[in-house]
Amino acid sequence: MATYVDEFTPTIKVNQADTALVVIDMQYASGSRHKGLGAFLAKQGRLADAEYRFNRIETLIIPNTQKLLAAWRAAKAPVIYVRVGSFKPDFSDAAPHVHAFFKMSNNYVGSPEHEIVAELTPMPGEPVVDKNTMGAFASSNLQEVFQKLGVKTAVYVGVSTNNCVDGTACEATDRGYGSILVSDATGTCSDRMQEVTLESFLRLSGRVDTTDALIAELQASAATAG
Predict the structure, then answer these.
(1) How far apart are CA 61 and CA 169, in angstroms?
(2) What keywords were assigned to this record (predicted)?
């Protein structure tokens, strides 16, 4: 729905030279039904509680992220991965609001659960940034990576839309970067939460678009540059 805020929201475009694809928290800890959160719920007989989440990851987020990765790599545009989890095996560095979740999912740097899911494995040379907060800028060197790669705009995919994806994108917007959320390559625990988060993000924070639209825009930019 269009609102008066729309006229104050800047136009954000995809440019092959300075638009990064940022993959947020697509890890076994909370991005797979077989480990971490999925294994925890299965052990309790509650895996059905997260069926929406894992079904969306498997049927939409991973396939569309694979398409975006292929397009960004073909265009030689920046690709960056972000992982969430404790920096310490005893979780002593985790803030109270994430401590129990990290511990439950055995999510710390070096654990199997902390790794990116195999379907989205980073290519050699692609930066992998570790954080222990929801927003990546608060606890990682993501801004330094952006500066090193000449990033001016970032396209965000991954989980969860309403927490780490939105949190990182809004932090980036506050730092002067253009931010785009991919509606069909992000996900959370319900359609309602997904839609509300995207609608809220559109109010000054950035742009929301689809996988196919963003790939087409990237390819058009690359063709012009080439």
Answers:
(1) 17
(2) Hydrolase
